[in-house]
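INTERNAL TRANSFER SHEET
From: sequence group
To: structure group
Subject: Helix-turn-helix domain-containing protein

Please process the attached sequence and return the structure record in the designated field. Keep the field labels unchanged so the import script can parse them.
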Amino acid sequence: MTEPVRQVVEGRRADTVRRLLDATVEELAERGFGSMTVRSVAERAEVSRATAYSYFSSKEHLVTAVFWKRIQALPPSGADRTGKPGDDVAQVVDTIARMLAAEPALVRACTTALLADQQEVKRLRDEIGNEVYRRLTDAVGEADPTALDAVMTAFVGSLVLAGSGYLPMERMASHLAGITDRVLPRA
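Return from structure group:
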């Protein structure tokens, strides 16, 4: 499992990282991404700024790390597989969309943070993309591979639309379900 920080952490250090990630979520909810800083997150987590920077290179890295942890915490895909690509893709998309809809401030922040041109953010962005793609690939199975590309593009586009305020968070799951149904009709 890929660590979201610059170094592998255990024990007390892992608790510090957890506090920083929790503080990031709180800062996003209260201040928004534009006003959040690594310093404000460190203060909220009750750690020094130097300690925060030893684990996270920027606020974009913090936000991307929170998002990666949320993706990692999703239930394993495939347990409820029906063998019907439309149904299985809809389940994967719904699971992820509901997780995102529960934290609108995080989604708004991710719209900017995930695009950062920083090594740590790129690494986690690749991990996130690979995990979503893996889940969708498993769900699509032997169906038309272009369907997978269409659903992945719709997923990313919906994330950007929701994060930009053009798609209400509470409509994201149904929006994605509608697109999925057109590309891979359910049984």
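Handover comment: The two ends are 35 Å apart (CA to CA). The CA atoms of residues 140 and 184 lie 9 Å apart.
Transfer complete.
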